[in-house]
Design goal:
By secondary structure, the protein is α+β, with helices and mostly antiparallel strands. The chain is about 30% helix and about 25% strand. It has three helices and five strands, in the order βααββαββ. Strands 1-2-3-5-4 form a five-stranded antiparallel β-sheet, with helices on one face. Helix 1 runs antiparallel to helix 2 (about 35-55) and helix 2 (about 35-55) packs across helix 3. The mean pLDDT is about 85.
Length: about 140
């Protein structure tokens, strides 16, 4: 059974992203099998990347976040009108090097590794000036 889909569109800025994440967390409560922690991490990384890299503070930037959930997964689509990804492709899974002291770890570089690791499917396309990222996050198994 697929639950009613959720959709929201907002400005591509930090404040709007925080509000959208808060709204998402409220909506995810309606989906008891949903891995809310994984969903929050992945969506936060995706939205922050859009604000920081794709829209880069542009005043006319927008983001649309959609999801639907069923018993096996939560399916997301995130679209924006920012610049395309380099070479029109997803960044590859590249685990950051973490062989030093905790205080010496880099501040960034973990986002795409988290996104790749926590999603089952992950696709990117650009059509008519719009970036679209789709991904699926596995639901909790009823037997767990």
């Amino acid at each position: 059974m697929i639950h009613e889909p959720f959709r929201t569109r907002f400005a591509a800025d930090e404040t709007a992203v925080r509000r959208a994440l808060a709204l998402l967390l409220v909506e995810l409560r309606n989906h008891p099998n949903c891995d809310r922690g994984a969903c929050e991490i992945v969506v936060a990384e995706v939205l922050n990347n859009i604000v920081e890299h794709a829209c880069n503070g542009g005043e006319d930037g927008w983001i649309e976040l959609c999801f639907a959930a069923n018993e096996t997964a939560t399916l997301f689509t995130v679209s924006d009108n920012g610049v395309p990804m380099p070479d029109l492709r997803l960044p590859p899974l590249k685990n950051p090097i973490i062989d030093g002291a905790v205080g010496d770890l880099p501040e960034g570089g973990f986002g795409w590794a988290l996104i790749h690791t926590l999603t089952q499917t992950l696709t990117y396309k650009r059509t008519a000036g719009v970036n679209t990222l789709t991904f699926e996050i596995a639901a909790y198994s009823m037997s767990e």
